[in-house]
Amino acid sequence: MAPLAAGCSVVLKSCDKAPLPPSLLTQHLLQAGVDEEALQLVQVQPSENKAVVESFLQHKYIKKVNFTGSTAVGRQIAAVAAQNLKPALLELGGKNVAVICKDADLQKAAANVLFSAWFHKGQVCMCVDSVYVHKDIYDAFLAVLKTEAVKMMENPDFALNQRDSAAAEKVQQLVTEAVEKGAKVVFGNRPNDASSNCSPIILTDMNDDMNLASEESFGPVFSVDKFHDMNAVIARINDQPHGLKASVWSSDVLAALETAKKLDFGGVHVNGSTIHDEPTVPHGAVKDSGSGRFNSVWGLEEFRYTKLITLSK
Questions:
Q1: pLDDT tens digit string along 95-130?
Q2: Residue 242: strand, helix, or coil
Q3: How many Å apart are CA 247 and CA 135, to the nearest integer?
Q4: What pLDDT, on a 0 to 100 scale, did the predictor assign at position 159?
Q5: Which of 288, 260, 293 is nearest to 277 (CA)?
Q6: Domain 2-91+281-301: which CATH class?
Q7: Domain 96-270 is in which class?
Q8: How far is CA 156 from each of CA 87, 120, 149, 192, 242, rounded to the nearest angstrom?
Q9: pLDDT above 70: residue 194
Q10: Alpha-carbon Rg for the chain in angstroms
Q11: What does the pLDDT average to over 167-191?
C-alpha cells in the first residue's frame, strides 16, 4: 500500500504458494478506484520466478524493488538490483530472541514466549527462535514454561499442518540434526515421519555448531539457554547474523530499556511479544534480516526521494 499512497505505480508479483490473497487485494483496490495503469498483478509458474524478477529489475521503468521472503532469495534479489543501481526494500528471515532477566515475571514471560514462538505454527517472521534465561531462574522458568506449554497444546490449531510438506521437512531436518549433535527435546515430540504436521518443540543444550542455531526454521520450535552475564549474552546475540525482533523481560523497565538499546535488532519489545506490528510504528530489520522500514511515514519515505529545486531571476 505504501508505494500507491506515495504516488507510485506498482507491479505486484504474487507468491506462487499463495496466489489468491494478492489477486483479491488487487481486485478490491481496482474496484475502489485505483487506476489500472497504476497497479498490475503478475502471476507466473514457479519455474519462471527468477527470470521474471530479473526482467523487472533490469527494466528502466522499475525504480525500486520491495521483497518479503527468505534471506537467501533476498540476497539474490539485492545483488541483481545492485547491478542495475536500484534500491531494495527487504523484509527477510529472522532468528528472533527473548531475554529473560532474573527479576522477570516468570508466568507472564513464559506464556508470552510460547505464544511468540508457536503462533501460526511458527510461520511468522517475528516468531521467537531462541530464549536466553538468567542462570538464577533458569530451572524455575523452564518448569513454568513446560506447565504453560501443556495448557497451550489444548488449542486445536496445533493439529494443523505446516504450509506444505517441504516446510515440515525442513523443520524435521533442523531438529534431527540438532538432537544428533547434543540438543535435548524437553517438550514435544521429535519428528520422525513424512507428515506435514510438526509438533511444537522446546529444545535445550543447543550450541553454535547446529544449523538450527543460526538458521530460521519457520516452524514451532525454539531453544532455551542460560546466561550468567548480561553484557556477554548481548554480545553473543549481536554476533548472530539476523536482526529482526527481540524482547526483554524484566520488572526493572529502565534496566530493560538499556538492554534493548544495546541489542542490534530492528525492533525490541520490553515485556512484550516479538510478534508486534501495527500501522503507526516502523517495522523493519538490520543485518541479514533486511533493510528499510515499513508502515506510516517510514513506509512512505521508502518510495519517495528528496529533490532540490532552486529559482533565481
A1: 999 999 999 999 999 999 999 999 999 999 999 999
A2: strand
A3: 18
A4: 77
A5: 293
A6: alpha beta
A7: alpha beta
A8: 43, 12, 13, 21, 32
A9: no
A10: 21
A11: 92
